[in-house]
Amino acid sequence: MASIKRYNTRLVNYSVNVGRMDIKAYMQTLGQQARSAGRELGKTDTGKKNQALLAIAEVIADSTAHLTAENQKDLLAGQQNGLDAASLDRLTLSPKTLQAMIDGLRQVAALPDPVGEITGLSFRPSGIQVGQMRMPLGVIGIIYESRPNVTVDAAALCLKSGNACILRGGSEAFHSNQAIAACILQGLTAAGLPAHAVQIVATADRAAVGELITLSEYVDVIVPRGGKSLIERISQEATIPVIKHLDGICHVYIDDKADIAKAVAIADNAKTHRYGVCNAMETLLVAEGIAAQVLPLLADIYRTKGVELRGCAKTCSLIPGCIRATEADWRSEYLAPILSIRIVEGIDDAIDHINRYGSAHTEAIVTEDYTLARRFLREVDSSSVMVNASTRFADGFEYGLGAEIGISTAKLHARGPVGLLGLTSLKYIVLGDGHIRH
Amino acid sequence: MASIKRYNTRLVNYSVNVGRMDIKAYMQTLGQQARSAGRELGKTDTGKKNQALLAIAEVIADSTAHLTAENQKDLLAGQQNGLDAASLDRLTLSPKTLQAMIDGLRQVAALPDPVGEITGLSFRPSGIQVGQMRMPLGVIGIIYESRPNVTVDAAALCLKSGNACILRGGSEAFHSNQAIAACILQGLTAAGLPAHAVQIVATADRAAVGELITLSEYVDVIVPRGGKSLIERISQEATIPVIKHLDGICHVYIDDKADIAKAVAIADNAKTHRYGVCNAMETLLVAEGIAAQVLPLLADIYRTKGVELRGCAKTCSLIPGCIRATEADWRSEYLAPILSIRIVEGIDDAIDHINRYGSAHTEAIVTEDYTLARRFLREVDSSSVMVNASTRFADGFEYGLGAEIGISTAKLHARGPVGLLGLTSLKYIVLGDGHIRH
Most buried pick, A72, B129, B194, B211, via CB within 10 A? Predict the structure, then answer.
């Protein structure tokens, strides 16, 4: 604990200095330090990176009292500033959250290191040998909202993938994040890694975000985590590529040939397992041949769980009390116990609806028909496409990535849950023996 | 020939219509048509795509007289407008260029189809099976300068990778490109593919470029091919992701432990094989322990071939007549018979120079030392990194990609020569049997 207090003191001084500094100059400094640390980290041994991750886990485990105390300051300020219950909940570092942070670090340490992996090395007719080597992206800027546990999760993924990172958490989690930063710094130092491999912006000034997303010389990619408005703003203003997911308007399509029990279980789970998450179903599409059988069963479940239903005319005729959906409903990510339902003619109609209104996040078909399952997998162009499984599975842990830094709905680079591989890219390597081109 | 003339007539009418239309509305129409054609193309069989590629090759082979005549119009106009000899050369559809276009189409037809490939499908503890499927990006906008053969090369790569494309060639190649467009349209139609799978902008109005790079609803990625100023402008103004290479300031580093014969052959080839290409060496770095042996040999070769040398002070002391390089030289992509030379202490100094002045295109080390070769491969973060081979090998054909749509120096998505794989990305697929998340 003594050493942590020492680091905290330094951070506090640093933070005070920032207050007097120009934000632009401060962010430039962070960028330069990150670029230099990133170059070091890119060539660091796997063992040393794992050592740092485990050291950070240990420091956090030894510092729970201190972290909780710092978190209390944020919670108190949050209450005084009128934060709502959900935000206060996200802000809280409970014993369970702290343990999850520690477990997460150990899990990332246990994952295979993607950096430096060489694939496809094969000889060409000219005699050169060509392959690809996986490399860190360099420096990653992460901008997130209230959850302070993101600080540790994001730092762990960046560290393991050989990327330096600059983290900008929500101002309401300022004390928590600074205390976590001190733990990370201590772990990095213990393992002999550069102190600037993970930097947490030590000012609550919002101008820091604007500077971070335009630091094109020093930052290679921006990962925003948070609400749609944050991500839209960042995407518009950033001069650096952004790995983003804007929204998750996820669909389940229950086909004529669906198994009724599976259809009910999946449509229930996809909507009601958790409401406020991006992989929750927002629109249910049902083939007209099966609607009369499956919709009344589902309507009972949704009614019991308090889910408001908004349907097309045909749906409303099958479900008493269902509200008529408007055009806006098909484009809505409710993140709430509300569901829109549309009866469609069949798979073509369903795919048309998804193409038109979906956000290319996650779509599932429920069917026992081989050919339709195969068509849905090929023709639906979302970051995750599923057959007979709940959209709630679209998640880094569930996919075996170990952890994720976000879910990308963009088409280039990484789509779906972004784990270690999404934080790297491939360069070509060529091995010759004095070869020249003729 | 009769049918080609028919298509040409239609195109000419179309082009005339464009003149009267609003450019914005015209580009919107192309975008909508491309999106719809792209959805069709994404699910088209490999066999049918190959059939279209071979049909286009056949139509071009049958239309050389017509294509040459149309090309003559452009060449005549170019001469009248004072185009320089190099531009006129690039603009010319010679029998050799035409044959290369035909061969290119047949080669792309022979390449494996990347679309729909499923990889890594494995079971997770929850019971779901997770893998990834390779998908087309959707719609690709390509903006290029005078070479009309790019029209065919780009169309072939997009077609095979399941992407619709909108091509905007240089206004100086307008007639050539429209004649090629007619051949492509005929081939598409013969194979039963959507006519809008490949669209060539039928107006020379420059406003079309500004519209194309902001058609975010319909275009997924922009590939600019051309000079640095074109690419910089497009990158700045585009609201769509751009796959670009800005410049190729490529380095060869001759290490102390280099084999002299290999070093001389590689440094000669990398500079003098072709001057105006992005993978030509622009700066030669030489370890001080070997400079006195290798530089005089190279200086003789360069002198014979008329290459102007600009060196650091130490280099100038070894090479009589060498001009002193300025800071600007280290940042210059000459694309000309000019070479900057710097003597460095060793590999660390060389990598520092590359990090500072390079453009992350292609870098090569010449060494017989195992450890230094391994370090250079890992620590130099360029799109291609080579050991004992000429930078001139950084090329889609040489790497076995079949063809390339450009060379990317960006870090996200595709780095280096971009072939069929770079025009696709991976989505996740999940196979379940009624699985829900607990």
Answer: B211
